[in-house]
Specification:
Layout (H helix, E strand, L loop, with lengths): L1 H6 L4 H12 L3 H13 L4 H12 L3 H13 L5 H11 L3 H13 L5 H11 L3 H8 L3 H13 L3 H13 L3 H13 L3 H13 L5 H13 L1
Length: about 210
């Protein structure tokens, strides 16, 4: 059916065939149908084929496909390129690509750029880029808590709590439980419950049950 559709000029069909052949290990046919799809204006075929090859560990081919897709106007593929380089441990190159994606208006790159800065030990830069974003600050705090830096993690959450972000109190309670500060965790959960944070009451009940058993 897909072959007939491809012969009839349906751009979606050769794209799907390229991906199917690649999954089955026939890269020559995958390349052929990818070219057919591109000739019909379906540049996303390049991105999809690149993602499959990346998953197979063929990073060189994946990068070439991503760059070609980008040069043909698929701007968000910069994110795939940056993620590929990050996976390879090439953090400086990944950072440059994420920054380029950000300059071109792809705001989703911020999350990954913040993570790279934090991983690279550039905590101040990571915080400045996160700005007032509660989600990004919480991600940074979680990264620091995972490294055992619980004081630093709690400090990051303080500003968001003062702005009235009730859900941040749930994260704070989690960190306090990790360090064995059950009284502090209870206070945070009570505050979260009173502020209307979802699941706060249930988590508080479980904490109190655990303390009494």
């Amino acid at each position: 059916m897909l072959l007939y559709a491809a012969e009839a000029g349906d751009a979606n069909a050769p794209r799907e065939l390229a991906w199917i052949y690649e999954e089955e290990g026939d890269s020559a046919q995958a390349d052929h149908f990818c070219e057919v799809a591109v000739s019909l204006g379906e540049t996303n075929a390049l991105r999809g084929l690149g993602m499959i090859r990346r998953s197979k560990g063929d990073h060189c081919s994946a990068a070439a496909l991503f760059w070609r897709a980008y040069n043909l106007g698929l701007g968000y593929v910069l994110f795939e390129l940056a993620a590929l380089r990050e996976t390879e441990g090439k953090l400086k190159l990944a950072e440059r690509l994420y920054r380029r994606a950000l300059r071109e208006g792809h705001q989703y790159a911020v999350n990954h750029l913040v993570r790279i800065l934090e991983t690279s030990g550039r905590a101040r830069e990571a915080e400045e880029l996160a700005g007032d974003s509660t989600d990004l600050l919480r991600e940074l705090a979680r990264a620091r808590a995972d490294r055992g830096e619980l004081d630093a993690a709690e400090d990051l959450l303080t500003a968001a709590i003062f702005r009235g972000e009730a859900n941040v109190l749930l994260t704070l309670a989690e960190f306090r439980q990790r360090r064995g500060d059950l009284a502090g965790a209870e206070r945070a959960l009570r505050q979260a419950r009173d502020a209307g944070a979802a699941s706060a009451a249930e988590r508080l009940a479980k904490l109190l049950e655990g303390k009494s058993s």
